Amino acid sequence: MKTIRSLAVPFLPSHFAALFFCAACALLVPPSSAAQGFTVEQIMSSPFPEDLTAAARAPRIGWIFDAKGVRNVWVADAPGFAARQVTHYSDDDGMDLNSLRLTPDGRTVVYSRGSELNSAGEVADPTSNVARPNQQVWAADVDQGEPRLLGDLNCTREGCEDIELSPDGTMAVWAARGQLWVAPVSGAVPAHQLAFVRGENDSPQWSPDGSEIAFLSHRGDHSFIAIYNFGRESLRYLAPSVDRDSMPRWSADGKQIAFVRIHGLEERLPLLQIRPNPWAIYVADASTGQGHAIWRSTEQLTGSLPNLTENKSFHFVGNRIVFASEQDGWNHLYSIPATGGAAMLLTPGEFEVEDVAMSRDGRSVIYSSNQDDIDRRHLWRVRIEGGKPEVLSKGETMEWSAAEMADGRTVVCLGSTATSPAMPYHLTPSGREMMAASGLPAEFPAAQLVVPKQVIFPAEDGLQIHGQLFAPRGRTAAGPALLFMHGGSRRQMMLGFHYMQYYHNAYAENQYLASRGFVVLSVNYRTGIMYGRDFREREKGGPRGAEEYQDIVAAAKYLETLPIVDAKKIGLWGGSYGGFLTAMGLARNSDIFAAGVDFHGVHDWSARGIFRGGSAQEGGGPPDRAEAMRVAFESSPNASIKTWKSPVLLIQGDDDRNVDFSQMVDLVQRLREQKVPFEQIVFPDEIHDFLLWRSWVRGYKACADFFERILVKGETIASGN
Prior knowledge:
Elements: H1 16-28, H2 40-43, E1 48-54, E2 60-67, E3 70-77, E4 83-85, E5 97-102, E6 108-113, E7 136-141, E8 148-152, E9 164-165, E10 171-176, E11 179-184, E12 192-193, E13 200-206, E14 212-218, E15 223-229, E16 234-237, E17 244-250, E18 256-262, E19 279-285, E20 291-296, E21 315-317, E22 320-325, E23 332-337, E24 344-345, E25 353-358, E26 364-369, E27 378-383, E28 390-391, E29 398-404, E30 411-416, E31 423-428, E32 431-434, E33 453-458, E34 464-470, E35 479-485, H3 501-515, E36 519-524, H4 533-536, H5 549-560, E37 565-575, H6 577-588, E38 595-599, H7 625-634, E39 648-653, H8 662-674, E40 678-683, H9 693-712
Parallel strand pairs: 35-36, 35-37, 37-38, 38-39, 39-40
Antiparallel strand pairs: 1-2, 2-3, 3-4, 5-6, 6-7, 7-8, 9-10, 10-11, 11-12, 13-14, 14-15, 15-16, 17-18, 18-19, 19-20, 21-22, 22-23, 23-24, 25-26, 26-27, 27-28, 29-30, 30-31, 31-32, 33-34, 34-36
């Protein structure tokens, strides 16, 4: 599944020149512009693009547009790139589209529709339809657009709905219910299970000639790379061991497979200690299964398997293997001969690589990074044998999710700016050109949006923290201000509309709040990405000490120095991990934060299952379990509930698959006991990353209204509701 759904909370002087510059920018804008205003519906009206893909042998690209909750497949052809809609779904029905694929000839699109299953085996249905929905695989011919059902998915493992097409485009394979399923793209016969294989099986990869499929077989504390042969209807395993293998990649001639190996699961390890996760690259003979390591990481923390790019940065191209490593403290690309030898650093510098795509000829890598522009994304190209990276995009725009078309020259991508939402583009010698511009609604208020400013301020321990400051147009006097904290926490907010839909929405809400007169500071607190491994991997982050909370206090102190901020009217809001930090601010520092809006936040790390396990006294659990549980609770908002005084609005769907709904249920009882003023919005059957556009609109309207009532009008709400 796309990372956009991976929103679960994991483990996780003096800048006065910039200060007055930002304030001055706000004062220079004519006051009359502040009177224009726009609605939540207008700022949320733009269609969000994702799953950009290019046909292998045709001048065609495809993507998914989510327009006000109505999700459809679109395509465009080079060189004119006139966009047209393929499917014609018409309702904000919560049925997500994912895993878009184009057949090599570009004539057919294949995609999944619906969500993965929750722990009760249910597909998400935020419309509360009385008919039970299914997660399914569909295909549609581009010229006809009538979808045909290939089979059900109903995945139990996040990400298992990834669909892979055979090299000739006639067959599709996917993972569902722990097994692999195949079906002809024509829909001539129903999908059938590939074979019975023990364990949970996913990550299918076709051999170059289409005669075999390599896949990952999870066996709990270990995992194998297996190969299914169609002609023989047989299975074989590659260098089986007690370790955990993943990411199978075929060589171009189909004779070898590269994969990643990490140690098998070790029981009863201490919970509070952060341990390295060393790994190795193996190459195996695809016919015999015999394999050997061609590269091993160090045993240091920086040698751990990187989780920033992981699966999408591992490629077997030509006679070399491209991979990501954080051995120098930054997530970079390397390449190594398939026979072994020294790994070559391809992307040197103090920045991080994110999206990675191979060129059509297999000679270069196209990647997105924050090189030379730390709070944005741009595209670069580098040869797999090394050399100076080539700049493909730059400036005050942002670009991500690049793909090279069949001609081996044209690069397409998704992109945005501070005032224009995410849209598909193709790169030109002079910059980039938007595709599907007609899909951008006339009601979208681009001209009324503000351009956020980069700000950098120190935390109490001296760590430099980045943020984006949204200053209302025409602000001349001190007024209310808000902090926004992203979720993840492996995320970075940027100086423009975000590449993930959840944060694209949040950026729109921050623009809306600024239009309503609130100064908004979006905080890239520690444990987030793109500022180096040391910034991200904190020994005392999250349930191990919540040291990132000091960055939120530092952000509030920064706001207090601004002449356009009333220090007594500072609120904070966020979702998921950002909801956790919102609740932390209200629980620990109601003297600083006057109100908060908490979307599906974590309130008790010790109750969330992160540190759960068997009792050490029973001989079945980690030796420091009791201490870990104590630290986890003390790192939670619930530990400071007695000092929580400020009002809060709590918002969550009760089919949340990332943060248990019980976190909100439990917090409400504690707030009632402490007589803390609160309001609540519960979306029955809605998930963590709301599937309905109208859920986002209602939540964001309520968020702005709550802050306006509390911070602007000075209203009070009843306690213990």
